[in-house]
TrEMBL record:
Note accompanying the cofactor annotation: Binds 1 heme b (iron(II)-protoporphyrin IX) group per subunit. Binds 2 calcium ions per subunit.
InterPro entries, alphabetized: Haem_peroxidase, Haem_peroxidase_sf, Peroxidase_pln
UniProt: Ca(2+) binding residues: 66
Limits of the Plant heme peroxidase family profile domain: 1-140
Cofactor(s) listed in the protein's UniProt record: heme b; Ca(2+)
Chain positions recorded as heme b binding sites: 7
Membership in a protein family: Belongs to the peroxidase family.
Disulfide bond annotation, renumbered to this chain: 14-46
UniProt keyword annotation of Glycosyltransferase present: no
Organism of provenance: Ananas comosus
Protein name (database record): Peroxidase 27-like
Length: 140
């Protein structure tokens, strides 16, 4: 199984995760798996319908490539639903917990390297074989 921790760096627009804050099940509720204090911080910055404000994917280290992502996932402070989903499967949960240990950083970087090599083997689509998505989460 490949785990690359790609969310370890970067930012996201509020609209990419606002459903977790304001309308998780379609009833105006919050995702119960999200840490309430973290959700309150996000709500201060991201109002309903906000499509311009950005939030760090890993608060405090959005520009640093490190293992803090895994620590935040364990604390229920993952920005996306997919972050929380890592804790719902035994294999991925065990992997996440293995990266919150004191000496885990070297294995994280080794795993990331393996993942990047494997991603490099995925063929690139050219010409009319594929498309560049305007929004990464949906087909144009």
């Amino acid at each position: 199984m490949d785990h690359e921790g790609g969310h370890a760096i970067g930012r996201s627009h509020c609209d990419a995760f606002s459903n977790r804050l304001y309308n998780f099940t379609g009833k105006g509720d919050m995702d119960p798996s999200l840490d309430p204090s973290y959700a309150a911080q996000l709500k201060k910055k991201c109002k309903p319908g906000d499509m311009t404000t950005v939030q760090d994917m890993v608060p405090g280290s959005a520009t640093t490539f490190d293992i803090n992502y895994f620590k935040l996932v364990v604390e229920k402070k993952g920005l996306f639903q997919s972050d929380d989903a890592l804790l719902r499967n035994k294999e991925t949960r065990d992997y996440v917990y293995s990266h919150v240990k004191v000496d885990a950083e070297s294995s994280f970087f080794a795993d990331f390297g393996v993942s990047m090599v494997r991603m490099g083997r995925v063929g690139v689509l050219t010409g009319k074989q594929g498309e560049i998505r305007k929004q990464c989460w949906k087909i144009n």
